[in-house]
């Protein structure tokens, strides 16, 4: 295939080995996504960062350890939240560009944009600087968030799509784990007063981003996007390699299905702007219903609210403020920090449950049982933590209630990792027509950004 670079790995690998290579790259991008989220948990407790640079708190001695006592929670929360404004902008821009130039180029753009944002954060000297840097970094993350799941699902077969995406999100939580323990280790440098405590963890994310930018050019484009833009010869070849030369008949049948669906979608939906996709939910008398039987507006509402509900569940609060949660359960500052780290590891392994359940139980059943487990666990965690606070003068009761509260926090994060973590990212790529798939996934990231910023 002369139209595809001879250095592209599609010429060397096929079938499962090619899919694994693609998902390793997708996993690298999602690792960065998880690392970037988990990083601020340790950065916020850095004395140099919170007291001397951002100036939202004071340093106090508590349980024999120096720690930041927040005096301006609005500033601290604003620095965290502005990142999600950036992801909102980045996902809309990335979705639009992804429909024009393809998935690979948007991944490269998001990676290099993230490098710029991470560099600005690493060098920040004050709060305004950090706010601008977080905004820039969020834009790059938004581009990757919107395009990577689409690329991964468009190359995977329908029978293994859920499994591969679940594995990728195990790497997402691995990024959270690495961010937490790296920050925990750095917190001991110069008793927590050194700028290294927060600058190094921020700078560390540049490494996977540069690696992603360097290698993504050697990977195949989405065959579905290639069909959409009329590059059918390339699409047929890539699809044949993905499914294997010994399965040529199945690959050709899938290719013809993609071509037929693309033609049908061109006839069914004429207006594909973000505004028309959103407004399509409204009655025809108000200008809606432009997509006809495709019901694009209904799909937009589904993915937006699925992502918002994912964040309203409370996982971001548990991840970012885990130290405070375990402190309220009666543990010391040091013990709260390492228990929070163990919780992240438990969270990561819980995502492997989805590898075996998503394609067997389906999306809705997985969401249902996840809701039940998390609801019970959150109720019991809050109740036992409150009892621990009421029994501070009784060490045995405080320890027992605190341990129970911590245990159910572990159950909550495990329930989320096994169900709600993955499905809202997988769902958009499965329900949107090819013509607007990247933009459809962008609406999902909009919901995720709104949900995170809100919480």
Straight-line N-to-C gap: 49 Å
- What is the helix content? over 70%
Order of helices and strands: HHEEHHHHHHHHHHHHHHHHHH
With strands numbered from the N-terminus, the spatial order across the biggest sheet is 1-2
Structural class: mainly alpha
Task: Walk me through what this model shows.
The chain has 455 residues and is mainly alpha-helical. It has helices at 15-43, 47-53, 73-101, 103-122, 127-155, 161-186, 196-204, 206-215, 223-228, 232-243, 248-268, 274-279, 296-312, 315-320, 322-328, 333-361, 363-390, 395-418, 423-431, 437-454, and strands spanning 57-62, 65-70. The protein has a two-stranded antiparallel ribbon with strand order 1-2. A hairpin with a 2-residue loop joins strand 1 (57-62) and strand 2 (65-70). The longest helix has 29 residues, at 15-43. The protein starts with 14 loop residues before the first helix and ends with a helix. The model has no long low-confidence stretch (mean pLDDT 83).
